[in-house]
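I am sending you the entry underneath: sequence plus fold tokens. Let me know what the token row says about the fold:
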Amino acid sequence: QVQLVESGGGVVQPGGSLRLSCAASGSIFSILPMGWYRQAPGNQREWVATIYKIGSSNYADSVKGRFTISRDNFKNTVYLQMNSLRPEDTAVYYCRAGPYGPDNAIIWGQGTQVTVSS
């Protein structure tokens, strides 16, 4: 069973940067697609970025050119580098693993708060 723990959230001024980390347990991390999602108050959870086992990635239009997703398969960790942050990026950010296995399981982390405010 894969477990995920996010870290790196905090408060930052507009234009600033943060790097989120998501540490995964389990030996199958390297083959899993990994994603970042976010949920602002009153909004539905929305997709931010995904990285696949071969390292290819894609991004939501709202973050393209500002955010970078990466992974370190030796450390079982996926990262989200966030630059040029805007107040509208304020949300709880969640890491997601999967789908994997015969049941197409999806695993979520507990979330980390990112607040962009002056």
